[in-house]
DNA sequence: AAGATAGTCGTTTTT
DNA sequence: CGACTATCTT
């Protein structure tokens, strides 16, 4: 019994959670408490000991990454891939249901998924059509409104406007937007969920089928569920179905996008009693880090209540640094990273976390100057990049001519003399005919409804799509994509442009072909183009070379959720930054900021650094915000405050400032003239270290020794071979340019 | 039909 | 301040 691989490795709480027979189980899983393990083991236990079949189980997550991990771990533990088990994201599962029951859901068989970019375009068009002033109703806000309503399960007819013109207009826009979607057979992300919820309500026999199939529903990150998601789950589980929900109210950080922390807070009451298991033993962090996390989060009201503990070591104290300004703060961080690397830490073991993306800039510059390779999370994902979306829109048109969003996007890309007025004409005609733009375009071409130039251009475009569709009919997906990328003219378009950007676009298009081929290989039996397009829409593609490159990780606190790093720098801890200015005066929002801080602290395994800048340049103005209240909430006994006096004098130049910092906290301003940002060399923002590494005789950041100049760090390499110029920052004499063949450098 | 330029705005992100 | 957009200009 003790050798049972399923249960023997679990602690008591985990064991209880895995083997509970309660029809409603709430697992309150603290950070680093083994929640995925519990989910995975519970699923396997249900199959083995409660004789469920894989098809009786539905496991829901938020991200594709989490779903993939769970699926894989279940497979490993069961030794067979759990084929019939549904493991996926809310959206993925909703999508699957809608594909299977499209008719009952009131959708066309070939409906397309609209990503937020497409959605915004459709909304802009709707605004134009209704002649709505886009300064009073900014498209982004309209989008937010629509998605919000959908997340709350509301259709336009459910919303009251109480005679308010603004609200009335929003509802109008929602309605017309929805009509546009219907006309083009388009379904946005929120619609996937709302539709499948409506499917449950509208078709009891379908609901009954799934209720009897899914005897057990398990949900991960339950604190992030919104209203529709929760309603959908509740209806599906019904009276009979078992529910296991796993989550942590203290890690609810997505309230601003519709997540309802109440879902987890009131779950027990809501379902008429649930067994609650708390996973409080933490396997990730030192007790010092946990004590800090507990101290912060305990200030929040209305918690379900949980306190992390560990059997592990106390570890090092937390280091707190008060930067003189944001540049100084960044320099401190890059310097400490440098030492950590010297002490044998891997770059990928180190993360810098911040509240908002704008903060990454200074950090990047400091890392670049210190020649430390880094990687920034965020920005556009693979399938969202403009060139990829253009290619995808051509593919979309191939399988669905009526996809207006796709039509509009590429009808004049590459430019083929179809100006705004021609497109407007097509749009109007479509509107009048109550048909898609494709139909309208056909009509216009057949009836000579356009000026000669536009007429020819449009005819050519329509012909191109038809030809491509026919000629690639029997080809593999990969070949099809390759041909579309070529013949659409997209490849030539980017080839004619110059610069790194265009080069990257060409490479991305090539990578798209690779991605399609990969999809073909991995997918079950001969996937169709439509399958791939769904995949592209639903998985915007992590395609960011994963942890292949060993680099310091920079990301927002939100993106860091779920991850862990041996060394964490949590920076920008100032009032107004973190907690953000917009949140600090509203209790609920402040509480969410505090949870975000809790999330940040609990990412650290061994060593945590906290830092802030006494003065920060923000929007072109110097601000003195003062240290974040979150710092004060951590017991001082857990922290060491670094106060390095500016003692080292160095030659005045624009070189890296080495080990001298501006004054510590309490020191007046202006005392550290050496750290003024004006002396900072301007570094090209887009230049990433990884690209510079190619063919360089030395790795950037490589430590080298020179007979005369002593030890230094390689900053840059120009050229290769014996005449290559090596740019080195020497500890003693500052920056030097040396020629490879004479330098006689020794690697250290 | 692309390029300059004025104007705006300024958390957090997944699907 | 600087990134992004919308509008104007050539």
Properties at a glance:
about 750 residues, alpha/beta, eight-stranded mixed β-sheet, six-stranded parallel β-sheet, globular, DNA-binding
How do you describe this structure in short?
With 748 residues, the protein is an alpha/beta fold.
Helix and strand arrangement:
Elements: H1 12-18, E1 24-29, H2 35-49, E2 57-61, H3 64-78, E3 86-89, H4 90-100, E4 112-114, H5 116-129, H6 139-151, H7 165-184, E5 186-188, H8 189-202, H9 204-213, E6 216-219, H10 227-237, E7 242-247, H11 261-265, H12 267-270, E8 275-279, H13 287-297, E9 318-325, H14 326-342, E10 350-354, H15 360-369, E11 374-376, H16 386-399, H17 404-410, H18 420-433, H19 437-446, H20 452-471, H21 477-487, H22 490-496, H23 500-522, H24 529-538, E12 552-556, H25 557-560, E13 565-570, H26 587-601, E14 604-618, E15 621-623, H27 629-632, E16 639-642, H28 689-692, E17 703-706, E18 710-718, E19 725-730, E20 734-739, H29 740-743, E21 746-747
Parallel strand pairs: 1-7, 1-8, 2-3, 2-6, 4-5, 6-7, 9-14, 9-16, 10-12, 10-13, 11-12, 13-14
Antiparallel strand pairs: 14-15, 17-18, 17-21, 18-19, 19-20
This protein binds a DNA duplex (15 and 10 nucleotides) through α4, α8 and α25.
